[in-house]
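Dear Dr. H.,

I hope your travels went smoothly. While you were away I took the liberty of generating a structure for the chain from your last submission, since the lab meeting agenda had it listed for discussion. I wanted you to have the full record in hand beforehand rather than looking at slides cold. The sequence, exactly as received, is reproduced here:
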Amino acid sequence: MPLRDDTLRSLIWTPDASRAMALIGNTPAAFGQTWHLPCDPERRTYAQLAALASDLWGVEARYTVAPAIAFRAAAVFDKGARTIVELLPRYAHDNIFVTEKFAQAFPEFRVTGYPEGIAALRPTG
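The corresponding predicted structure, in token form, is as follows:
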């Protein structure tokens, strides 16, 4: 994990994002507006997400919090690491999407919760 495991995160389940973009794109009243795509309204930290995965998958969650200097050093040699360095400010603080506008405009839209999404990602083998 980059920088910290105690900041609150908004993570979007990709199938939900795809359905939401199609819904917004096919709703004339939504044109010309800014939208945050829907995500689980329960805000969790990376540490909490790792613990949830551990519980759901029945394995011990092990991870390392990598300091910014590690990414900066890697960026000297790796293009992918350079991209991550550009995103590091997002990991230093809470990163919360405000999705109430979407929820009010599309109340029938079902958002995949963290437990359901993490359970679906369970590693095999």
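Two observations you may find useful: The mean pLDDT is 93. The longest strand covers residues 8-9.

With kind regards,
E. W.
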